[in-house]
Amino acid sequence: MSLALEARKKKLAQAMGNKQSEAQLVAAEQVNAPEVVTADHNPLKDVFEQLSGAMQSDLAALKQLDTLEDKAAYKAEALEKQGYLNYLQNYKDQGAHFPNIVLSWVFIWLVDLGRYRDVVAWLPLMTSQQQPLPSMFKTKHWADFVADQFYDAGVKQLENQALNIFERCELIGYFNDVCKLFDQHNWQESAGSVPAGKLFAMAGKLEHQNHNYTNALNFYLKAQQLNDGAGVKGKAKDIAKQLGIELEF
């Protein structure tokens, strides 16, 4: 790491340290806040104003970092130091519902950091509240966003020959979770059949790579049902033939 980058990171770390105590204090004070949250009385709005300012500062600081590794490290540290996750858990537990840019960015960071267990846990809230995505993103639906991000993660895993069976199964498990959410909430209607088809097709490829042929076939068939252009008909036919199953498309 260059001396210039090191100096810049120290400066950013110092800035984060100066503002974290106030943000954490405000977030901590909300732990025992009243459960009733209405448009007229929202005890979370004050802490929201504090943390939305902290988030804007963090986003500006991230623009000063050059590598994905440095940005990932900053995000992971900010999630803890700023008290974002504690605040959002309070937001969720108290049934709050208002456009929340802190929630939106924290969710995006969780995806970026590969914290897929948290992504699966928060995704239903993101979609049910129709939280706005930042304007820089082309999609307007969180399920669409997650489908695209999971697809990219799947591509990387398919190309990574160094992973062992246990490492490959971990991501497959999260794919299964997200695919179940798509089915339960019928997100393909709002997110679109193309991203949903990509998600299920990639789930099939990952299962196929692990020789879970029945699971792979089911995902391939679902992908083709959602989007005839999903591009996995041939793979589905190959597995069906291997399993002694006749398919008609």
Key terms:
249 residues, mainly alpha, 12 helices, disordered N terminus
Can you describe this structure?
By secondary structure, the protein is mainly α. The chain has two domains: 1-113; 140-249. Helix content is 72%, strand content 0%. It is built from twelve helices and no strands. α5 packs antiparallel against α6 (116-128) and α6 runs parallel beside α8 (165-185). The longest helix is centred in the first third of the chain and has 27 residues, at 3-29. Mean pLDDT is 86; it is low at 1-5 and 18-39.
Give the gist of this structure.
The protein has 249 residues and is mostly helical. Helices cover 72% and strands 0% of the residues. The protein starts with a helix and ends in a 6-residue tail after the last helix.
Q: Topology as H/E string?
A: HHHHHHHHHHHH
Shape verdict = elongated
| Tally of separate helices | 12
The assigned structural class equals: mainly alpha
Amount of beta strand: under 5%
Radius of gyration: 21 Å
End-to-end gap? 55 Å
